[in-house]
Amino acid sequence: MTGIARDEWTPAALRSDGPRYLAIVEALQADIERGMLRPGSRLLPHRDLAEHLGLSIGTVSKAYAEAERQGLIIGKVGKGTFVRARASDAASPDVERSRNVPLDLNVPPPGPEIELLAAEFASLPNHANFAGLFDYLPHQGLLRHREAAAAWMGPRYRPDPDTIQICHGAQHAMSLAFSLVVRAGDTVLTESLTYSGMKALGAHLGVKLVGIQTDHEGLIPEALDEACRRSHASVLYTMPTLHSPTAATMSPERRAAIAEVARRRKLTVIEDNVYNFLAPDAPPPLKSLIPDQCFYVTSLSKCIAPGLRVGFVVAPPTYRDRMMLAIRATAWMATPAMVEIGCRMIESGRIWRLVEQRRSEAAARRAVTYELLGAYLPPLQSNEPAGFHLWLPLPLEWPAAHFVVAARQRGVDIAPPEAVSIDEASPNGVRICLGGPEAEAILRKGLTVLKEMLHNPSPSTLSFV
Fold first, then answer.
1. What domains can be seen in the chain, in order of their start residue?
2. Sheet bearing 235-238, strands edge to edge
3. Count of C-beta atoms within a 10 Å radius of residue 118
4. pLDDT class of 77 with cuts at 50, 70, 90
5. pLDDT tens figures, 164-207
């Protein structure tokens, strides 16, 4: 490379801690927010930026893939990579908005949630103590709100409301729980494929994630036991119901076996149960088996809407006071008006109407997916709950990173494998999110593209920019 033109972006500085590719993404986002980069600005080719920064091409490619996943940039085959216009920006003649089929974000499809939320917001000023919702309230949350949270968690596990604490969504609850049980440099065990938010949290806390082998039910007890022996880890993060990204759900027997390993190895377990509302027949959570060793985390956001940041956590008895202190230190309290909206939906019964719609839509979309991709998917297990995501194993001819790029070039967005994989030994495949497309016809269009790619693999013909 002979030099960098003045109008070609390079980061002024990269933070020294954490993954380098994420540091590039953060610097890019910061310069976009400062107005230093406008929609349509062209970025350097992968190779040139890698040479300028003294990094590998693979690191820069991961950064560009993550930035594109976050909606910051867009790649045009044969033209380059450009800063993407935001949804709120006026249309820019310099960069086209992506019209790809969105199979990358794990959200439910549009339903009656806006209508239901509007009704609750409209009635909020009639609250007996409306002004009080904007005052300082208990860090743990109001008793009435915690009673509604207990009803939401039931019926197979319904904790005492006094043990529930309210947070700004499940991610906030997880962040606080981990801050109580790990320090930088510690090891945390989890599935070999895990929730992307867990990877982000691990990087933020400076902990090492160790992936555990799984099968169609999730964590394998013997593999967990061996990982404990080798790593001497004391903390496990797991999602036993509709695990993200694999959609696996543990049987009662598997949960009992995992709980037994946790008891014997004295593991502190952080159990993420945000998809429980989609699985009415799921067994009781691990929390019910090892209450003194388990943080139980759930939320309303995955059911109602991502912007309704209302989460609930039940900590082990020895951590409850410290959890309350952590809530106070990081937020003082969850926003009472938002919590009130969510809890009124529970009390009024409106949320159960939404739950039924979500379950029905999830089942319908899974049926469409198996109709088109069934030959490439694992067979469904009996009574397996339907969610809005599943794991698509890929043949050797299709390395996951190549498959994601090829799909994007053909008009389908899929999250890059780095978002959910712990290490290079993770299974070769991609998470397919079924809720992003607004209509079934759009979902069918995207799945048909993937079917054609699987039927005629040709990764060697990809064009990279």
1. 20-96 (1.10.10.10), 128-348 (3.40.640.10), 352-461 (3.90.1150.10)
2. 164-167, 311-314, 294-299, 268-272, 235-238, 187-191, 208-212
3. 10
4. low
5. 999 999 999 999 999 999 999 999 999 999 999 999 999 999 99
